[in-house]
Fold each of these.
Amino acid sequence: MAFVEICLVLATIGLLLFQWSTGTFKAFKDRDLYFEKPHPFVGNMGASALQKASFQKQISEFYNRTRHRKLVGLFNLRTPMIQINDPQLIKKICVKDFDHFPNHQTLNIPNERLVNDMLNVMRDQHWRNMRSVLTPVFTAAKMRNMFTLMNESFAECLEHLKSSQPFAAGENAFELDMKVLCNKLSNDVIATTAFGLKVNSFDDPGNEFHKIGKTLSFSRGLPFQKFMMCLLAPKVFNFFKLTIFNSENVEYFVRLVVDAMQYREKHNITRPDMIQLLMEAKKESKNNWTDDEIVAQCFIFFFAAFENNSNLICTTTYELLLNPDIQERLYEEVEETQEALKGAPLTYDAVQKMTYMDMVISESLRKWPLSAAADRLCSKDYTLTDDEGIKLFEFKAGDNISIPICGLHWDERFFPQPQRFDPERFSERRKKDLIPYTYLPFGVGPRSCIGNRYALMQAKGMLYSLILNYKIEASPRTTKDLWESARGFNIIPTTGFWMQLLPRK
Ligand code: HEM
């Protein structure tokens, strides 16, 4: 082929790609909705898609530029979304008129085993059935029993810390990457509470569960890139029958759960974990759930719990090292709790009684929301009106909606001095001043997070052990500016969550 022809072919391909990458950008043209000029392929999400900023930062900046409008058009890569900036309208869409918006955005990956059976991906009546099966699984009573399993993993984590101390207790501090520590903890807690498997990733970091579990994360490495491709070009992705996760790794987890269920059934074994609760729920349910549908609910822990739980401990410890007064007050509460326990291990009820701990964690989730935004899909046409009945917007079935959680959390109209870490915002006295539907770390309405109790219990339990035994301090490698240094979907500094621990006793 002559040079000119090659150039022509390349130019045609380039033009077609350009047209495709901007093909959805006319979505709001005739709908009387303000939007910012999107860019080819990345829409309004250039900085986060290209890993120059975290998703949280990008969403928050977009919200700040547009918050004077109740509704605004947003292009999440090529996907047009209607972002709701007004708390009252969030309530209307996610709670009052939920029937028009009962599902999350469609994740179009038919070849992916288990992912489509997870509660967060399920839709309509199928979702309702599974949600009602799972709701009793996450009650306080069930969590109380599960806490005993978590406690074992906290103790192992502490043993590991003690043995890795290079100095005699009380003498000197040692540095660690909190993220590495918390990932191991998250792994072991998920293994024991969700998959019925006891592993110790501190003593045995190469254990199979940890090795395979690490490959099952949307938020980094090859799965992240495949996930982006699947969002950007689902038809191409599915045409080539691509999957985000390696099927052998998925099969490993299926076998783990199915074999455990069969073994327990046969030998009449009970254990206070997710498998047990799902086996009971399956028996009681009228729906004939398949093995895959049951296993998928354990699988959720990898996507919803693994990163979130470990990041929550990281962002909270980071704030504690920056705010020694707050850390000291928390230490006092933790010490009082230990004294009240009189040598007995920590319990779920003792965790619930730590009110300052709750304020600290709530503020951590306010300042560092782990989910930048929540999404909904309009399933029936809907006219959105304001309190006076004046029409604001006509939603059409198929419209995607975005709730800018981190924008709301960093809005000084709702949270004065939003950069300040101030647990007092959540004190008994001031809690009532919170404006409804502005604080949404676990989402909102019937589709909100089902695992919030589990997440809070793990983070509080681990913090109790850490704070009781160590003073958390900055080390030379501690990130100076977390907001600027985080990338992707999670608030993790690119260099790691370095800090130092000074043994207290
Ligand atoms: C700190 C930890 C966590 C945070 C910040 C978090 C946050 C969220 C958010 C923002 C949503 C979307 C809610 C909405 O659209 O309104 C969600 C949904 C969900 N989360 Fe969590 N989550 C956490 C931990 C967990 C854990 C431990 C589980 C364990 C099972 C879990 C399971 C789920 C499920 C199943 C959904 C989808 C619910 C549905 O569609 O019915 N999450 N989470």
Note: Residues 119-120, 131, 300-301, 304-305, 308-309, 312, 370-371, 374, 441-444, 447-451, 454-455 surround protoporphyrin IX containing FE (CB under 6 Å).
Amino acid sequence: MSGEMKYRLRVDALTLPHMSRYATAIEVSKDISDNRGYFHFAGLHGAPGRWCWHHQFSQQSNLSGRVFLPWHRAYLHRLEQSLQDIDFECAIPWWDWTLSEGIPEAFSSNDFEGRNNPLQKTRIQLFPPQVPNAVDQETFRNPDPNLPVFSFPAADVNEDGRATLAEVTDYLVNEVTRFEVFNDLLETIHDFIHVYVGGSMADVTFAAFDPIFYSHHCMIDRIWAQWQAVHGIDNYPNGLKSIVLEPFGLTVEEVLNFETLGYEYADSVSDIDIGGSPIEG
Ligand SMILES: [Cu+2]
């Protein structure tokens, strides 16, 4: 454990220190070809590793259970550790899709400090025997004009017949007391966001090569962290706590208290020292 707590902040303009540090670390990571680099981590989720847990299953396990949230927490943690080896101060930023602003500029812009924006896309190159057929393509997105809304009266605070992501998320965190119900609703919302982004993000085989994947999952992890703050950090099915989250070597139990993994969620940069650079704007 590193000892010092890192704060994960909201996705914002690339000119802000927490974003430029993150983009720079991703850029460097993409040039590391061994198991400390971006392509190693991107390849764990879908092709070629196929370790991910969704809807109670992983292609690499004969167990079934709600392991979606802890598996992705361990995943982000290991990626974040590798990025902190590049820049000790950096942390994964969360994409707050409840703000209804679409794909953030930090991920859609071509330019980062006069270079290609490393958060915009990634060139995927996979060759046999890693995959049956060679893949050489760039990640792409095909976002819907509108973020999803839900027909969900219990969450629909203003009763206009359309529960927004903000309303559904609030409802989930504050009103849903059973982990199983919380998990399944959150996983469904998660699916909708993958489909909303479209393109590579809508394909589990390649989704994790798109850098926006990690900020989407960071948002999912943050909502779980908020739920844990309300409903209990250890509020998780006991029978699943000893499952090992492969290939990360952590058990479910070991990731429940995320602060022991060295990070917390903060809403604003204003009260946090994120490593020297003055906050602008
Ligand atoms: Cu996902």
Note: Residues 276-281 have pLDDT under 50 and may be disordered.
Amino acid sequence: MRINQIKLAIIGVGYVGLPIALKFGQVFDTLGFDIDKFKIKNLKNKQDINKEFTKKEFIKSKKLLFSDKLQDLKDRNVFIVCIPTPINKKKEPDLDLIYSSCKIICKVLKPKDLIIFESTFYPGLTEEVLIPFIEKNSQINNAKEKNKPNKHFYIGYSPERINPGDKKHNIENINKIISSNNKYALSLMKKIYSKIINAQLIEVSSIKVAEAAKVIENTQRDINIALINEFSQIFKQLKIDTEEVLKAAESKWNFLKFKPGFVGGHCIGVDPYYLSHKSLQSGYKPKILLTGRKINDQMPLRVFNEIIALSKIKKINLYKSNLLIIGATFKENVSDTRNSKVFDLIKLFKKYHANIYIYDPHIKYLNLKNLKLINNLKSNYYDVIVYAVDHKIFKKIKSSKIKEISKDNSIIYDLKYALDKKIVDLRL
Ligand SMILES: NC(=O)c1ccc[n+]([C@@H]2O[C@H](COP(=O)([O-])OP(=O)(O)OC[C@H]3O[C@@H](n4cnc5c(N)ncnc54)[C@H](O)[C@@H]3O)[C@@H](O)[C@H]2O)c1
């Protein structure tokens, strides 16, 4: 395939797929494909419902179109798959969306086409599960080194590392891992990605290495945060200020800078389960991975228990009280609320029939009963305030304002070390 013959399709234009589509759309004939009709309608109007990109960025992508129609995929010859890889209720990989996207590709796949997966996988998912699935559904075989390419399709895996909300690290400047089970496919991937990436392209020897590398990046973060969460529990028992301990320890060059807190979203809190699933299949029961997950998942309960304990000491009746959550997305500076642990904390207050107010200008809409998304904060009104997400836009909120909106006898919990210590009752 010559570089000027490439017709790209980005399958799934969400947090990962859209920036890729926008970037490739500056260089190649690119189609952003998604089954979400509402999303596609907005994207056609140059509107990103996730609020990550402005119209300006769409205008720069002159070769990019969007569609939810299968027939528009027919002339595509490179498919880049950016589909979610969540877990199910049993905390095992839920591959339904990946399978359904592969079925769509199979309907239009031709010999010589290249499929590149960018979603986060466990080691072996591409080669042991998806290649056979695609071969069966498309009736075309995957190209092994000695096969004649005109009868086979190619496969590649290149995990995505972008970090929504982070303006410093972007597609152009993040080193990108590329892998394939076929030399020609790998060289084609190199040509394609080098058109949009200024950073290093890191070729690894197998797809499994690339899959494993991605899944451990997020798992390492999860474990590190779990460790800091555990430190903060220990220091609370010992009545030592965790923030001060961390600052002191961080003065050593090789102490890793992590803060305690909630781990939500659909990557860091999910990917360790992908790795542990594969590890269990291989006969090894991971220990640290799942312990880290447990510690991080229990953080909302820990925060809740601390609030309850203090309410008893301060004689604050939490029944029908006013609870204010400042920041409810799963992390700073994004609008994404998926798997935000703030909602786990809120659920724990259910039995108190508390009035729950959420103040988060990043969130435009919340489809949850019994929650009030507010734009204005009331003076002397809240019994409990949890400062949960440290968005940049909150930097303007002064501690004095937090004090002003809380009742005289109230609880202020700062999960982010963002407020003045003097006005705060609880911190991690
Ligand atoms: N969001 C991140 O920060 C991030 C970073 C790196 C890697 N990842 C990984 O990238 C993958 C995608 O994550 P995301 O955050 O972009 O998800 P997302 O939910 O934001 O976007 C996925 C898109 O795929 C669409 N989709 C679902 N099924 C489809 C199908 N059959 N055909 C076409 N479109 C379909 C959805 O409508 C959605 O628009 C996941 O594996 C994730 O772990 C995410």
Note: The first strand starts at residue 7 and ends at 11.
